## 1
Amino acid sequence: MQFQIVRRAARPRLRSRNKRYSLSRYSAWMGFLFILPWILGFILLKAFPIFTALGYSFTNFRMLQPDQTQFIGLQNYITFIHDPRAWGSLIRSINYFLLTVPIEMIAALALAAIFSSDRLRGKRLLRMLFFMPSVIPAIAISFIISGLLNPNSGWINELILKPLSLPGIPGRGNFFQIVLALWTIGPGFLIMLSAMLSVPREIYEAARVDGAGPAARFFLITFPMISPAVFFSLVINMISSFGGVALLDRGLPYSQSLSPMESYISRQLFSGEYNLGYASALAWVMFVVVMVITLILFYSTRFWVHFPEEESNEEI
Amino acid sequence: MKKSSSRRQDTSTLTLRLWEFTGTSMLNLFIWIALVVYLSPLTYMLVTSLKTASQMNDAKAPLLPSQAEMYTYNGKSLLVYYVPTSTGIRQLALEEKHIKYSLFVDPADPQAGLIRWDGYWGSLKHVYHTQLTLANFITLWTTVDYPHLLRNTMIVIGLGEIGVLCSSIMVAYGFARFRLPGGKFLFFLLIGTIMIPDSIILVPTFVLFGRVLHWSGTFYPLIVPQFFGSAIYIFLLRQNFKTIPRDLDEAAMLDGAGPLRILVSIILPQAVPTVVTVALLHFFNAWNEMKMASLYLGTRPDLQTIAFSAQSYQSIGFTPEALQAAALLLMVIPLVVLFLSQRFFMEDMVIASVEK
């Protein structure tokens, strides 16, 4: 998405070609042959499972008694409405998204803004070190946080709170989520930084001549120019906040997923019951919620994202 | 008149320069301080992995890895405590424990005999001296078969890497260079699949892999799906392939090269940084991968990966914290070393999109 601006600015159009010698000379089936692996994967591992899950969600399918499976209509969804723990997990999943994604976005945007300055030295090394925690698995981060917050020997109590005679932190609270969010900014930071670096310098010069200060330059030039990149990283962060893998895997099993709803679903599956029908119904509820959030995000783009005009496909 | 004005200009440029210099150094200082704060929690894992279990259990122990001071008296090794006496705090070795009083020996002057101190010995603090221990790593190495874990991890990563690279490159090439009927819609679908939550496909794929294909307890569920390509990698590769000029394609085509030939000899050599980036992304992801591993390898301890073993150390109730830290460190260090030693990953994600 964000790559398009760049390409259009940097590469002159190469139009002078003899149409007969382009790959499109090969008929469409050759192209389909190339994308065949993905089409098969899409059907087998995405489309088929999604609709199978919808089918399961109307039954009382249990792994251990598959022959007793019956169609029970909306019973699983009614159970969901009366299941406060499922509701709680869903709400905590949405809260997690609302807490962490803004932190990730603001931190990554601020860091990218600092890195786009010419005055910073050693950018390559710094960039790498700021990205590094994003490849560290979440169990390690969880371990570090519970150790740091340990009321007896934790460093936060010993080194910061006790010398300042502040009260100790009783539990983990949102601390783990916040640190994990701050340690996940890597991909978003890189995407937004590359977009910032590709904004033509002349625009800033012109704005400076017209008397725009740094804040005005950021909000009136930088942000609109990089808004496709901001949107792309927003989508990536949203996916990982719901337990998915967008670019980097944080290495958590389903049972400890960052999204409480996902771990609740896997608990329905594996805690002795193998209640596949109910788990599928819950998964569908979560699927719908995530899709609604995605649609809201995509709808919101018309108010703040300035997509470059779509490249025409005629050259293919 | 002239002179004074030029001097004024000199001083003003000097102030400006000074001002700029201050600003630059403040910015650089700020970012380095921010970096130290940002990475500081990682030191906790490192430091903890170098501690002994007994230090972790002592709430009054110092924060750095240390060992309790011992003193050998009459063939017995005694722990040394800080004891408050009338002559100030002394370091004494505990010889006889009682509830109301205890008997101590002075390591500096053992001839003086036993010293009686009134009070409960449990309230005293141990004397520590800073010392690193590799005991945790040695324990891990002897109890966990790391070469075997590494072998399993490398099988999963290696085969998965081949699968995901071959298929993603081919699909990206198909999207980038061919006029497909409904190609735009298919590409939109591809982007859409990135946003599907994992939990929705969890149940049916579990039935498919576990019940229909009987793949539980094998590596197949971790490897085979990679051969169908990964949407985000296809997206990254396709965006990069589209930036490669078509002139060479056409020249090769005039010489009679087929599409596969063009992909291998023209496109790929120009896309090396992006391909390496995707390969590294997949390496990091496969190294950390736990979702599929916990579903399908839980019953087979002999097929566990490094991530799986580190995770199981976490969930076992009474594993000493220091040992957990060492296990996690052994999992994290290869990742960090690979990440810091590579050339393309960051460069490509930032620069490739700018320059091309």
## 2
Amino acid sequence: MTDYTHLAGHRFPGGRYTLPAYESWLWTDAVAGTPDPLAAHPEIAYMIGLHGGGASIADIMALLGADEDSGVMFGELQFAFDGVLRPGAAYDVAGEVVSVERKEGRRAGVFDRATFVHRIAEAGACAPVATVTHVWIFPRKDEA
Amino acid sequence: MSMLSEGQALEPFVVESVDPGRMKTMAVLLRDPNPIHWDIAVLGRLGLGDRPINQGPINVGYLMELAGRAAGGAANVQRFDCRFLGNVLAGDRVTCSGTVTALDAEAGTAELELSAEVDGRAVLSATATITTMNTTKGASTT
């Protein structure tokens, strides 16, 4: 049985991401919002976290021994905002694996519940403007 | 923004038909390699039908839009916690509903309980804290 619980505390590379105005527009349009040239849709913090954190969706799946055929699903998504995200602004991102828990459900079978966090600060600042915590479910069909 | 009151039901936000084109946009934005969001041939091979599956963040965006409307703008959402309960497919009609569960006039915030449904099936639930200086404790509901 492959155990991923040791990944708790694993830090992503981190880095800086400048949010292009066109990405802000496209994100807001994709989620049925009204694009605003002065304020990005707050949920785009999730994308800034991934891109600025230096670990893509594919990287995170690979870290936990999964790929696009593994049936990885979202479990939960949490945001805390301490400011407004702005198109064209640069953000420093730090991210890590918070925990990995092996679980078993009647319908879902064996799965790993992995929690990640990305803290996003305006470039050069310390205090986060947004914190994104996300839980992914990794089915482990071969571990049943 | 209308005045909020405890117990008030928010005006529902409805996405009449989930657009598969926007899933492709989101896949590029997120660099999401999962083909279930755009490749019908893969969906067929996996036995998942012929309708692309909406990305979770798009579904969350619908509910955040509802919270933002109550707050007078999405930028006034302070906290947003959601759980994924089911898939949303291309062409689905998504109804987002919400209720004001508490007000804090001193802090100028309101607590919301939110949910999204497709054909009566819950697909997402959430709670949110929004900033609003425009609240009335114990006012009548609409």
